């Protein structure tokens, strides 16, 4: 037999061997074959394989929660003209009506226009009813009734939330976290998964809105102290990591987060405001301008005399108050606008860090609804996850041994049973290799899928073996081929039903079951296309003379 | 070594009516159980945390099992896992944060291990949506499977025989769940879906042997049975081992998939070789051929 004929006759087996070899490389060679090499360097795991594990098997926390808020979609608000021009002033007018009518913070309401020119108004709070929202829209001369309002927020808002959360989680130094969106029964959920983080910590990160602003605290014309917002997140171009500046006497004066205000209009406006509020008046002394007393670690506004302070405010809480310092000199000299840097104060390193993260990630467009009735939480310690990992391996091995035992007692012929078991296992190896290659994080549901794959795999091999062995010995390759083809009709039909039965799970967002369905479907496909034909070839070689 | 061979059953001794009576009676009982419990208890099967909402904590503690429930304000259901000093505690309440705090303050730490090893909570609203999604998935899967059956055989009786068997394969494990108190979880739904795929295999095999091949009816039947029963028994063995091992080790997801598939496949043996077979025999010998 010349080599070319050999390849031609055994191509199915060779294909299986090639796939197996690829899988083994993907599984065991460090670095392996990875779909996206940039990710590979990110998390250098020191396990014996290249497999990625999900929360169940690695530990971590997952939160699934809807977004708080409601939307009046596609409203006729006179915002977009017939020519498609968007009227920014009208948007601001509606927004400010919403703030005042519903007594909302600026962050809790907004009007947006999507690419298709349809206008949506949203509020991001639970404290307003649909009727109140509709009423407020009507006061802004928007034709909207209660029926036009639905729970939930717009797609744009959700994607903003997702990208903000992604930045927040990565900034917090947690690699491998993921944020995604899931829709179930018309409710949109945000799903956040973070390995190596407890549920309390993740909850804290998620419940922080992260709205940071700088407020000027100064006496107005009548001498009453008032607050005016002078700097918001959208006016900041760049954020540096927190620093601890040295004071005049060499000791620390809390922490600061250096930021760059956007050059041009934003910086000029900031300077004009400071001038208008009297922060740059003559006779101003950098040291004495702000001197708020501290009580129990928080800033007290119970004071005497005039105060000129810049307050750092995070989620409506005053984090720090400090005076203009060197900033005033630059503004008075007129040089500041050319290099508009600014330092936000924070009392501790932790505060400074979270300030910096919030500034960089931006604020959450809308808060997540983490209430017990609507959210889903799951967390598992690494130790417990590790236990699951070992148990899964044990259960998998037990199942394989059982299947092998049954197959062997049924055929009592090693020539048939052994290749059967080896082929079924190679299906699992190929699947594992595939999972390692696409970096699919494995969970318990995937383990169930792997066991199901061994089950269906062996079933189909039984069909092949019985069909081929039927009606006496296989005398020639031609007899073999015709019987093999008959067997394959049944296998194909069975595979089709399994795929159809499990495909809803692969598409629907039904918790953990997606992984199970995907692995089982993939396993069936690999089985039908690669391993089962190869088993036929192996049987043929063993049963016929050639 | 034990040797197992598929026994040859002498089907000629039984009439179609006799053959079909047993599986139909079992199906009727199963439906009775499901409808009855729906009318009396409000749901055909007990709903687990995934669908009803609630909290489940896995705790590692040296507090004795009997005293664990006392550490919580809510009613707690405590169950030991396969590991020493490790317990699963379930609540119908879904306020994970406060339950977690109660566990951490009320239970004794076992060595240096964290008290709360894993925690999972599901809001009731969320569970409600899961329920509808799961039902929708099951219906779609069943309809899809039925469509495939019709496409494969293109004749009414053999296709409907497959569909009736598959329906019964689903109803019997569901009734089993009600009777044994296994709650419906995402894992059991996966088991049921898997069952739709698995159980149809043996029906397709039987129909294929009888309808698409020549030869004597009983010969074909016996050949199909030899293969089919081997398949089903192999799967049942794998699922039983997986189910029991996972139950002992407290991996609920795997345990429920394993047990449900085991029961469903056992039901499938009966449905395929009694119900489906009698329908096919009737079709082959007495039915109106199109």
TrEMBL record, chain A:
Keyword Transmembrane helix: yes
Key word Protein transport present: yes
UniProt-listed Pfam families: SecD_SecF_C (PF02355)
Keywords associated with the record: Cell membrane, Membrane, Protein transport, Translocation, Transmembrane, Transmembrane helix, Transport
Membrane topology category: Multi-pass membrane protein
TM stretches of this protein: 391-409, 416-438, 487-510, 516-535
Classification via InterPro entries: SecD/SecF_arch_bac, SecD_arc, SecD_SecF_C
GO cellular component: plasma membrane
Intracellular or extracellular location(s): Cell membrane
GO process annotations (BP): intracellular protein transmembrane transport; protein targeting
Coiled coil: none
Highest taxon listed in the record's lineage: Archaea
Protein purpose: Involved in protein export.
NCBIfam families: PRK08343.1-1
Subunit record text: Part of the protein translocation apparatus. Forms a complex with SecF.
Family: Belongs to the SecD/SecF family. SecD subfamily.
Protein name stated in the entry: Protein-export membrane protein SecD
Phylogenetic classification of the source organism: Archaea, Methanobacteriati, Methanobacteriota, Stenosarchaea group, Halobacteria
Automatic annotation (TrEMBL), chain B:
Recorded family membership: Belongs to the SecD/SecF family. SecF subfamily.
Keyword Ligase: no
GO cellular component term of the entry, any: plasma membrane
Protein name (record): Protein-export membrane protein SecF
Classification via Pfam families: Sec_GG, SecD_SecF_C
Record membrane topology: Multi-pass membrane protein
Primary location class: membrane
Annotated ranges, domain Protein export membrane protein SecD/SecF C-terminal: 116-284
Subcellular location: Cell membrane
Entry keyword set: Cell membrane, Membrane, Protein transport, Translocation, Transmembrane, Transmembrane helix, Transport
Membrane spanning residue stretches: 21-41, 134-153, 185-206, 227-248, 254-275
Subunit structure: Part of the protein translocation apparatus. Forms a complex with SecD.
One of the protein's GO biological processes: protein targeting
InterPro entries hit by this protein: SecD/SecF_arch_bac, SecD/SecF_CS, SecD/SecF_export, SecD_SecF_C, SecF_arc
Described purpose of this protein according to its UniProt entry: Involved in protein export.
Organism: Natrinema pallidum DSM 3751
């Amino acid at each position: 037999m010349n080599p070319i004929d050999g390849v031609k006759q055994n191509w199915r087996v060779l294909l299986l061997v090639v796939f197996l070899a690829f899988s083994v490389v993907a599984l065991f060679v460090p670095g392996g074959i990875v779909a996206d090499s940039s990710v590979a360097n990110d998390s250098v795991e020191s396990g014996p394989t290249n497999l990625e594990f999900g929360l169940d098997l690695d530990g971590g926390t997952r939160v699934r929660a809807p977004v708080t808020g409601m939307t009046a979609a596609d409203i006729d608000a006179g915002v977009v003209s017939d020519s498609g021009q968007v009227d920014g002033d009208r948007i601001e007018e509606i927004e400010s009506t919403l703030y005042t009518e519903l007594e909302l913070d600026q962050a809790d309401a907004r009007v947006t226009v999507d690419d298709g020119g349809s206008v949506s108004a949203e509020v991001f709070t639970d404290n307003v009813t649909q009727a109140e929202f509709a009423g407020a829209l009507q006061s802004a001369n928007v034709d909207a009734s209660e029926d036009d309002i639905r729970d939930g927020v717009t797609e744009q808002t959700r994607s903003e939330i997702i990208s903000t959360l992604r930045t927040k989680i990565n900034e917090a130094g947690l690699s491998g976290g993921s944020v995604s969106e899931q829709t179930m029964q018309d409710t949109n959920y945000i799903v956040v998964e973070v390995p190596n983080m407890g549920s309390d910590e993740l909850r804290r990160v998620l419940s922080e809105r992260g709205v940071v602003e700088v407020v000027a605290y100064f006496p107005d014309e009548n001498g009453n102290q008032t607050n005016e917002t002078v700097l918001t997140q959208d006016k900041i171009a760049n954020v540096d990591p927190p620093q601890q500046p040295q004071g005049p006497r060499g000791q620390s004066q809390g922490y600061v987060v250096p930021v760059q205000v956007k050059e041009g209009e934003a910086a000029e406006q900031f300077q004009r405001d400071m001038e208008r509020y009297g922060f740059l008046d003559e006779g101003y002394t950098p040291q004495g301008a702000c001197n708020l007393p501290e009580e129990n670690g928080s800033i007290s506004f119970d004071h005497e005399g005039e105060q000129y302070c810049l307050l750092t405010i995070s989620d409506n809480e005053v984090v720090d108050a400090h005076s203009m310092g060197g900033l005033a000199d630059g503004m008075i000299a007129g040089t500041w606008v050319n290099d508009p840097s600014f330092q936000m104060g924070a009392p501790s390193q932790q505060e400074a860090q979270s300030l910096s993260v919030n500034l960089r990630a931006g604020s959450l467009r809308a808060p997540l609804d983490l209430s017990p009735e609507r959210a889903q939480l799951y967390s598992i310690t690494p130790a417990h996850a590790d236990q699951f990992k070992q148990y899964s391996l044990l259960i998998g091995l037990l199942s394989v041994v059982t299947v092998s035992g049954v197959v062997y007692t049924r055929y009592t012929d090693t020539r048939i049973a052994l290749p059967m078991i080896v082929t079924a296992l190679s299906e699992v190896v190929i699947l594992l290799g595939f999972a390692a290659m696409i970096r699919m994080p494995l969970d318990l549901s995937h383990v169930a899928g792997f066991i199901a794959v061994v089950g269906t795999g062996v079933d189909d091999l039984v069909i092949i073996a019985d069909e081929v062995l039927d009606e006496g010995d296989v005398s020639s390759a031609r007899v073999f081929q015709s019987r093999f083809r008959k067997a394959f009709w049944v296998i194909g039909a069975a595979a089709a039903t399994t795929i159809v039965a499990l495909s809803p799970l692969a598409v629907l967002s039904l918790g953990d079951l997606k992984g199970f369905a995907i692995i089982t479907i993939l396993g069936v496909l690999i089985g039908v296309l690669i391993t089962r034909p190869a088993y036929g070839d192996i049987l043929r070689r063993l049963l016929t003379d050639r | 070594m034990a040797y197992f061979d598929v026994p040859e059953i002498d089907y000629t001794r039984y009439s179609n009516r006799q053959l079909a009576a047993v599986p139909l009676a079992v199906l009727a009982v199963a439906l009775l159980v499901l409808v009855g419990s729906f009318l009396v208890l409000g749901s055909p099967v007990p709903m687990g945390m995934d669908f009803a909402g609630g909290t489940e904590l896995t705790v590692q503690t040296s507090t004795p099992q009997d005293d664990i429930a006392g550490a919580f304000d809510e009613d707690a259901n405590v169950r030991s896992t396969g590991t020493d000093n490790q317990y699963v505690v379930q609540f119908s309440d879904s306020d994970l944060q406060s339950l977690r705090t109660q566990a951490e303050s009320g239970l004794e730490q076992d060595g240096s291990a964290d008290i709360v090893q894993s925690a999972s909570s599901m809001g009731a609203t969320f569970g409600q949506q899961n329920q509808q999604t799961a039902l929708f998935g099951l219906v779609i899967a069943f309809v899809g499977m039925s469509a495939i059956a019709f496409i494969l055989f293109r004749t009414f009786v053999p296709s409907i025989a497959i569909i009736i068997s598959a329906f019964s394969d689903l109803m019997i494990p569901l009734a089993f769940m009600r009777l044994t108190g296994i709650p419906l979880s995402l894992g059991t739904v996966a088991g049921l879906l898997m069952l739709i795929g698995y159980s149809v295999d043996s029906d397709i095999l039987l129909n294929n042997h009888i309808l698409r091949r020549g030869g004597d009816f009983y010969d074909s039947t016996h050949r199909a049975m030899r293969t089919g029963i081997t398949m089903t028994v192999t799967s049942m063995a794998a699922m039983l081992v997986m189910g029991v091992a996972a139950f002992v080790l407290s991996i609920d997801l795997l345990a429920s998939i394993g047990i449900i598939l085991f029961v469903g496949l056992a039901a499938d043996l009966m449905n395929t070789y009694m119900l489906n077979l009698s329908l096919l025999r009737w079709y082959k010998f007495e039915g109106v051929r199109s």
